[in-house]
Amino acid sequence: MPTILAEAARAGNWLLLAAVTAALLLFVLCAVVLVVTDLREHRLPNRWTGLLAGGGAVTLGVACLADDAGWSRLWSMVGGGAAYLALMLVLHLISRTGMGMGDVKLGGGLGIYAGWLGWDHLWGAVVLGFIAGGVVALALVLTRRATGSTHLPFGPAMVMGAALAFLL
Questions:
Q1: d(CA 149, CA 58)
Q2: pLDDT digits (tens, 9 = 90+) for 61-107
Q3: How far is the C-alpha of 92 from the C-alpha of 98, rounded, in Å?
Q4: What is the pTM for the complete model shown?
Q5: pLDDT tens across 109-146, in order?
Q6: Which helix (H) or strand (E) holds 108?
Q7: Using one digit for the tens of pLDDT, what is the confidence trace for 15-30?
Q8: Could you state, in order of their start, the residue ranges of all structural domains in the chain?
Q9: Is 42 left (phi over 0), alpha (psi -120 to 50) or beta?
């Protein structure tokens, strides 16, 4: 996203710049609330996962109107949200005690953002999220702060993976 913001500013595309900036600010707000809530309460509230997905769709949809690759971005945004949501839903159904429905809904919102950047960013967000979750789980087990049966919140790892993918 930094590249898109820089190109929009250089080209004087103020609508694109404003829409992407608004989307990023909304992402940061929702991400902070969701990460803190998931770490404290092991849940991801619908109001915040919905705001992330709905607000991201609206702001990035406006950005599609101002971007030369608008239709391509729109379809990858919609597809990315659906793909990440579907992946998380399958994992939830396979392992009902592992992934919660909050993680599934969060996947939809994060998929909208990462998908808007393109399919490579989407898959990067997914993979980096699982890597981050695995590294945290391994560190907690090695330091004896968790065992193999400890339930760990996965939302923070998903958010971290998406945020890292935005920077690629």
A1: 40
A2: 999 999 888 899 999 999 999 999 999 999 999 987 778 999 999 99
A3: 7
A4: 0.94
A5: 999 999 999 999 999 999 999 999 999 999 999 999 88
A6: helix 101-117
A7: 999 999 999 999 999 9
A8: 2-167
A9: left
Tokens of 85: 């949501």
Q: Which amino acid is at 21?
A: T
Residue 159 main-chain phi, psi, to 5 deg: -65, -40
- Which residue, among 32, 53, 163, has the nearest Cα to 108 in the 3D structure? 53
Which of 153, 109, 163 is closest to 133 using CA atoms? 153
Report the half-sphere exposure of 123 (CA within 13 A, side-chain side).
Answer: 2
- What residue has token string 């809530």? 37
Structure tokens of 120? 């490579």
Structure tokens at 144: 């004896």
Calpha distance 90→168 (Å, rounded) = 27
* Nearest one of 105, 128, 141, 1 to 59, comparing CA atoms: 1
CA-based nearest residue to 114, from 76, 146, 143: 76
Tokens of 127: 């993979």
Query: Directed axis angle between helix 46-66 and helix 14-41, to 10°?
Result: 160
Contact 28, 1 (CB under 8 A): no
Structure tokens at 8: 């929009």
CA distance 111 to 125: 8
